């Protein structure tokens, strides 16, 4: 039953070559997806199925042709990937479906039996846009990859700008949305950013020049200004890169250059985050289609924090259009409120941009002093904590150190101070947080290696690669890299396996070698032992490497900046709260917390409470959210397994989601 059901889903998710135009034209433009046809697709940028602005679909005649082509193929489920225009067209198509079938039946375009089998059309949307300009989701598919392209160029420009003491003005995409510009500014510690939703004050020229001057006087050898292509002032007049360059040269005499990134932001290999996001959203979209009824409203699958949610499609479209209306009417505060994810980042940027806040420089990442552009840590961890050693094996030092300090408060009054732990480990094994700083960078390093290995196997046949990752007893890196890299299997400590399981996997790889895809990719964490032999004989290549080091990803830079700023604000509040007669005394449980991402929000949790949620022997949390993604990895590798659907994403509303988010900021 499941095999037939899955086949039906893939048939419903056929591959039209040019978006809606493929539906209208029909014929060979609608193809059935198979595992072999989508092999090696994961690491390709852009859209393999093609995309085009379709004027025909805007007319009823065009939609009538599209309906006939779908009915003839028995397709009653559509997953539409695009922006507000594509999703609006999908909703119109669904609303007209009954009348379109009636017209086709009347003219003899379809039979009565075909009309009965295709009596209703299910629609689910997924947002694909590098601008992240769709309201209702924290991140659209493609945005993180675009940020990767931008940050690669920013890092390259920073080195030459620092050498020659130059000012660089970088223009990034964002005609109507400044998300890319704002996140780039946070990730690289830029001196100024211009975005369309938040025009600068009328005397911005004076403020900008003063800021650049103070930065130079503070010892920086360069200045970086980020500009969204749609940047405007409060009167709606465009602020261009050349305008800013001419201002800096005329008033300050700095050697200033302009770099316009253009369409380079749209290309390249997708990031690990986008690959996992696309897979997770794709699975949620399929589940939404399978659960849909004629009464179910069309929904869009969105990301809220680290959780997949379903929102009414037209509610999201309407809020997105409301943003455009607010900006056209110069109600910029309202536009920011409607784009809640942008408003939170804007508030963060304003806090870190204060011209005289020298203590913020470490968070901002001022050039020449470390910051988000450098990998690793500029602070060396102490090899041995000066308190008596704990009875447990080593764990992330900040977490165990905080527990030891809590125990030491009874003996040492000097330890009665506010304490905040920020998770930072490539293994992502700190309890109390879905993500740790550094894990995304490590994941991208492994994914890039998987891509190169798969590419090297293109010239050979019947070869299996086994890649061993770091992580200790935590299988996060092996699992997520397997999902992002298109692996056939990922062996981890948390999911125990037997000789029989290994035999099934080997037989699966053997059958795979009989198809046109004659290669295999297996990942394993570094804890469980593994010996592999394929029969008939097949070459096996083992690769072992460390994902540590390298340039931090945009996600890690932004995540680290937010966590650091939030931790400093929390500690500042605790100091005021615990100050008595000129001294600080903090000995309550809530004065020593871990700041972590939990589903939809950043939360402070007492470390003593997290102690009960920790498996100290194996240095992992007792519950880990990503284990629910492992069935997806196996399904995409064509294993016939069942997917746990007990935890469903229920339909929410955009307004309720916004209120929930604001209460968590």
TrEMBL record:
<dbReference type="InterPro" id="IPR035966">
    <property type="entry name" value="PKF_sf"/>
</dbReference>
<feature type="domain" description="Phosphofructokinase">
    <location>
        <begin position="404"/>
        <end position="571"/>
    </location>
</feature>
<dbReference type="GO" id="GO:0061621">
    <property type="term" value="P:canonical glycolysis"/>
</dbReference>
<protein>
    <submittedName>
        <fullName>Phosphofructokinase, muscle</fullName>
    </submittedName>
</protein>
<dbReference type="GO" id="GO:0016020">
    <property type="term" value="C:membrane"/>
</dbReference>
<keyword id="KW-0808">Transferase</keyword>
<dbReference type="InterPro" id="IPR015912">
    <property type="entry name" value="Phosphofructokinase_CS"/>
</dbReference>
<keyword id="KW-0418">Kinase</keyword>
<dbReference type="Pfam" id="PF00365">
    <property type="entry name" value="PFK"/>
</dbReference>
<dbReference type="GO" id="GO:0016208">
    <property type="term" value="F:AMP binding"/>
</dbReference>
<keyword id="KW-0460">Magnesium</keyword>
<comment type="pathway">
    <text>Carbohydrate degradation; glycolysis; D-glyceraldehyde 3-phosphate and glycerone phosphate from D-glucose: step 3/4.</text>
</comment>
<dbReference type="GO" id="GO:0005945">
    <property type="term" value="C:6-phosphofructokinase complex"/>
</dbReference>
<dbReference type="GO" id="GO:0005524">
    <property type="term" value="F:ATP binding"/>
</dbReference>
<dbReference type="GO" id="GO:0003872">
    <property type="term" value="F:6-phosphofructokinase activity"/>
</dbReference>
<dbReference type="InterPro" id="IPR022953">
    <property type="entry name" value="ATP_PFK"/>
</dbReference>
<dbReference type="GO" id="GO:0042802">
    <property type="term" value="F:identical protein binding"/>
</dbReference>
<keyword id="KW-0547">Nucleotide-binding</keyword>
<dbReference type="GO" id="GO:0006002">
    <property type="term" value="P:fructose 6-phosphate metabolic process"/>
</dbReference>
<dbReference type="InterPro" id="IPR000023">
    <property type="entry name" value="Phosphofructokinase_dom"/>
</dbReference>
<feature type="compositionally biased region" description="Basic residues">
    <location>
        <begin position="350"/>
        <end position="362"/>
    </location>
</feature>
<dbReference type="GO" id="GO:0048029">
    <property type="term" value="F:monosaccharide binding"/>
</dbReference>
<keyword id="KW-0021">Allosteric enzyme</keyword>
<feature type="domain" description="Phosphofructokinase">
    <location>
        <begin position="17"/>
        <end position="288"/>
    </location>
</feature>
<keyword id="KW-0963">Cytoplasm</keyword>
<dbReference type="GO" id="GO:0030388">
    <property type="term" value="P:fructose 1,6-bisphosphate metabolic process"/>
</dbReference>
<dbReference type="GO" id="GO:0070095">
    <property type="term" value="F:fructose-6-phosphate binding"/>
</dbReference>
<keyword id="KW-0067">ATP-binding</keyword>
<dbReference type="GO" id="GO:0046872">
    <property type="term" value="F:metal ion binding"/>
</dbReference>
<keyword id="KW-0479">Metal-binding</keyword>
<feature type="region of interest" description="Disordered">
    <location>
        <begin position="345"/>
        <end position="375"/>
    </location>
</feature>
<keyword id="KW-0324">Glycolysis</keyword>
């Amino acid at each position: 039953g499941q095999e037939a059901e899955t086949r039906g889903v893939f048939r419903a998710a056929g591959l039209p070559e040019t978006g809606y135009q493929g539906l209208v034209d029909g014929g060979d433009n609608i193809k059935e997806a198979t595992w072999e046809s989508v092999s090696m697709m994961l690491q390709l940028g852009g859209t393999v199925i093609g995309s085009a602005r379709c004027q025909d679909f805007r007319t009823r005649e065009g939609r009538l042709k599209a309906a006939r082509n779908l009915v003839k193929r028995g397709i009653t489920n559509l997953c539409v990937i695009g922006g507000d225009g594509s999703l609006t067209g999908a909703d119109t198509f669904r609303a007209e479906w009954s009348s379109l079938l009636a017209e086709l039946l009347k003219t003899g375009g379809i039979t009565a039996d075909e009309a009965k089998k295709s009596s209703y059309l299910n629609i689910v949307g997924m947002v694909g846009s590098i601008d992240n300009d769709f309201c209702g989701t924290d991140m659209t598919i493609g945005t993180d990859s675009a940020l990767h392209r931008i940050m690669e160029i920013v890092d390259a420009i920073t080195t030459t700008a620092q050498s020659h003491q130059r000012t660089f003005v970088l223009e990034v995409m964002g005609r109507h949305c400044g998300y890319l510009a704002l996140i780039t500014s946070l990730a690289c510690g830029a001196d100024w950013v211009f975005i369309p939703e938040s025009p600068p004050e009328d005397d911005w020229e004076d403020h900008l020049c003063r800021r650049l001057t103070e930065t130079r006087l503070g010892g920086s050898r360069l200045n970086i200004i980020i500009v969204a292509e749609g940047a405007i002032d409060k009167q709606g007049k465009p602020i261009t890169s050349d305008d800013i360059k001419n201002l800096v040269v005329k008033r300050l005499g700095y050697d200033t250059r302009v770099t316009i990134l253009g369409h380079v932001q749209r290309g390249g290999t997708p990031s690990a985050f986008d690959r996992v996001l696309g897979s997770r959203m794709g699975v949620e979209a399929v589940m939404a289609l399978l659960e849909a009824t004629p009464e179910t409203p069309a929904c869009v699958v969105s990301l809220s924090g680290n959780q997949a949610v379903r929102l009414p499609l037209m509610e999201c479209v309407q809020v997105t259009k409301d943003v455009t209306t607010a900006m056209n009417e110069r109600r910029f505060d309202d536009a920011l409120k409607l784009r809640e994810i942008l408003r939170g980042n804007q508030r963060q940027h304003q806090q870190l941009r204060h011209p005289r806040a020298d203590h913020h420089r470490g968070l901002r990442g001022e050039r020449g002093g470390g910051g988000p552009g450098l990998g690793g840590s500029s602070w060396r961890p102490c090899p041995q904590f000066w308190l008596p050693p704990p009875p447990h094996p080593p764990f992330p030092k900040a977490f165990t150190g905080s527990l030891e300090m809590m125990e030491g408060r009874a003996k040492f009054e000097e330890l009665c101070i506010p304490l905040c732990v920020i998770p930072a480990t490539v293994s992502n094994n700190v309890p109390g947080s879905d993500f740790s700083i550094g894990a995304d960078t490590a994941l991208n390093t492994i994914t890039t290696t998987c891509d190169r290995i798969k590419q090297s196997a293109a010239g050979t046949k019947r070869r299996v690669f086994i890649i061993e990752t770091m992580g200790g007893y935590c299988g996060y890196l092996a699992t997520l890299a397997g999902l992002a890299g298109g692996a056939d299997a990922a062996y981890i400590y948390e999911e125990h396996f037997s000789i029989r399981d290994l035999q099934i996997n080997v037989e699966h790889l053997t059958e795979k070698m009989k198809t046109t895809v004659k290669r295999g990719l297996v990942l394993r964490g570094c804890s469980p032992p593994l010996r592999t032999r394929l029969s008939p004989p097949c070459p096996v290549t083992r690769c072992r490497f460390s994902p540590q080091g390298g340039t931090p990803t945009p996600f890690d830079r932004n995540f680290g900046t937010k966590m650091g700023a939030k931790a400093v604000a929390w500690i500042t509040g605790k100091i005021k709260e615990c100050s008595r007669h000129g001294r600080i005394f903090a000995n309550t449980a809530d004065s020593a917390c871990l700041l972590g991402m939990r589903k939809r929000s950043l939360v402070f949790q007492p470390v003593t409470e997290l102690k009960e949620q920790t498996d100290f022997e194996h240095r992992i949390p007792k519950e880990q959210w990503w284990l629910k993604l492992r069935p997806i990895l196996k399904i995409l590798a064509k294993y016939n397994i069942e997917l746990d659907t007990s935890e469903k994403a229920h339909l929410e509303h955009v307004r309720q989601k916004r209120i929930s988010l604001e209460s968590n900021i």
